[in-house]
């Protein structure tokens, strides 16, 4: 079965190059994107949602025009193994999820996803073979509609200078930039 | 000047393919990544931070092994035009920012970044020529160290079934999955 413009093995090679290793989540994610895309009308402009930060954003970025940096892909930290593609204007589209109820027939996928075994006891070759054999059989699709509030493209508005550190940031975020509000990942300020 | 394995024009073509259009932010971001990477010791494993969701994540994903889906790139919604690359183990690295004080010599970049003119009055060709001519002259680098709390890789822990909708999600997120807590982008529940 094709995944975008690739067959299974070619997609695996593309995943290895972009993602760094052949993660089961990105391969399954490839089938998820493909399944969602096939439900959309030809030629429409669509946006994407990933309900997890793990793996699925990379499948979406490899297989659709939607990336994090162009804003057509929104990534939520829900930890849910599901994604949606939807018409950019109407918000109508399809959500595809891993169908955990179907995993009894795929014990290696089940052990990986539900972490039934520690990683060192899982068998990656058998897991990969199950994923290849299953294709879209692991998945479940349903129509969705995005809430209108999420369809409005928000610009960043006025850019201002942080009075504390001098950095430029969207004024809407507050009187200080977010790192100066204490949200940054750096030790001792930003620099 | 080279950007990763590409020269300027080849990188522009890669950006067009991945990002969908030749966004000034991704091209400048390419020079930012390149500048940060040149400060790192050869052969180390490094992670990345983008301080904005716009454009810079795509430059990082195109030019480094760090992607959103593999977790080596963390994207913050600070709206700040800066990124960092740092040693995955020590947290030591380099932050590169757009040096707004240097933009007087680059009026088209300045008009674009500070939104001094509405988009329809900006001149994209002249903007692109300024970016090409400036290369790293628009940028400012400084050493950073990531807070140890951000170096710890957090697994998602136990996966549980949402008692309301049946979706599987990390138990640490609460008694219900995040969409059932009201955080989802969909109308009328998830499906």
Automatic annotation (TrEMBL), chains A, B:
Residues 153-186 form the FmdE-like treble clef zinc finger domain. SUPFAM superfamilies: FwdE-like. It comes from the Bacteria. Pfam families: FmdE (PF02663), zf-Tbcl_FmdE (PF23475). InterPro entries: FmdEsu_dom (IPR003814), tRNA_methyltr_O (IPR053194), Znf-Tbcl_FmdE (IPR057035). Residues 18-142 form the Formylmethanofuran dehydrogenase subunit E domain. PANTHER family: DEHYDROGENASE, DEHYDROGENASE-RELATED. This is Molybdopterin biosynthesis protein MoeA. The lineage of its organism: Bacteria, Pseudomonadati, Thermodesulfobacteriota, Desulfovibrionia, Desulfovibrionales.
């Amino acid at each position: 079965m094709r995944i975008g413009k690739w067959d299974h093995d070619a997609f695996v090679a593309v995943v290895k190059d972009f993602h760094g290793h052949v993660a089961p989540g990105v391969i399954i994610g490839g089938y998820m994107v493909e399944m969602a895309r096939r439900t959309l009308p030809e030629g429409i402009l669509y946006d994407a949602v990933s309900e997890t930060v793990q793996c699925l954003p990379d499948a979406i970025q490899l297989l659709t025009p939607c990336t994090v940096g162009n804003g057509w892909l929104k990534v939520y930290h829900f930890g849910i193994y599901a994604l949606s593609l939807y018409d950019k204007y109407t918000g109508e589209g399809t959500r595809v999820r891993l169908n955990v109820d179907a995993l009894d027939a795929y014990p290696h996928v089940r052990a990986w996803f539900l972490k039934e075994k520690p990683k060192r006891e899982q068998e990656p070759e058998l897991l990969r073979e199950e994923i290849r054999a299953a294709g879209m059989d692991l998945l479940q699709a349903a129509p969705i509609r995005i809430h209108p509030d999420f369809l409005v493209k928000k610009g960043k508005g006025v850019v201002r200078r942080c009075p504390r550190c001098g950095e430029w940031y969207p004024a809407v975020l507050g009187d200080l930039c977010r790192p100066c509000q204490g949200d940054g990942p750096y030790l001792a300020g930003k620099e």
